[in-house]
């Protein structure tokens, strides 16, 4: 319990929206009122919610294999956008298998903070086990579609392979919330699937794979991430880069 109290205290500088009465949470203080979304329970229970699934997928070589050997390349591309060292307040939306978050935490400058939100308690506990005791990292039990942070308080926000796992309406809310909580001039970094070029042989292999295991993922082939921005939002800048024959993308949006 002492560890939980120390973590809660370290998260104090980040304020909540005045309209929300929810406190900050560590993985050891889960909100009983925050339910796991039905789409996540029905579609991804085997990968993200069942303890055996978490234990199985939390292997560096496996997450790299799932991304056809591109995990490190995509991870480092996202981290490079944040600079070295990473300063200010950073938000990571949803936990990620593999060493993305530990690598991000290792790059934090003195006084900088990393905040990670996830709606699944088992994912937060798994991440805490990977991170160990780090005073500069705060974990929060929150839904990506309804963050309880104030507007414009993060210097950068990272959304790493989350959008393809969400239905269209949920995805749009996640994008809107990520843009809401980043500061003017701050950036939101999206890394996800993308429609491959015609000459990429994986283009034809990935269609049945994604259609079977990732039923919402084909949306990332059909639409640009920019099409999920709120109608009223006008980015200061938008940069897109593709990887591995177009199968993956990094989109950086400056508020």
Spell out the key features of this protein:
255 residues, alpha/beta, Rossmann fold, seven-stranded mixed sheet, 11 helices, 7 strands, 19% strand, globular
Overview of this structure, please?
With 255 residues, the chain is of the alpha/beta class. The chain has one domain (2-12, 23-254): Vaccinia Virus protein VP39 (Rossmann fold, 3-Layer(aba) Sandwich). The chain is built from eleven helices and seven strands. The chain has helices at residues 2-10, 38-43, 45-49, 51-57, 60-66, 71-82, 100-106, 121-131, 168-181, 202-213, 219-222, and strands at residues 89-93, 113-118, 137-141, 154-160, 182-193, 237-243, 248-254. It has a seven-stranded mixed beta sheet with strand order 3-2-1-4-5-7-6. Strand 6 and strand 7 (248-254) form a beta hairpin. The radius of gyration is 17 Å and the shape is globular. The chain starts with a helix and ends with a strand. The relative contact order is 0.14.
* Mean of pLDDT: 90
CATH architecture annotation: 3-Layer(aba) Sandwich
Tally of helical runs: 11
Number of separate structural domains: 1
How would you sum up this structure in a few lines?
By secondary structure, this protein is an alpha/beta fold.
SSE layout:
Elements (H helix, E strand, L loop, with lengths): L1 H9 L27 H6 L1 H5 L1 H7 L2 H7 L4 H12 L6 E5 L6 H7 L6 E6 L2 H11 L5 E5 L12 E7 L7 H14 E12 L8 H12 L5 H4 L14 E7 L4 E7 L1
Parallel strand pairs: 1-2, 1-4, 2-3, 4-5
Antiparallel strand pairs: 5-7, 6-7
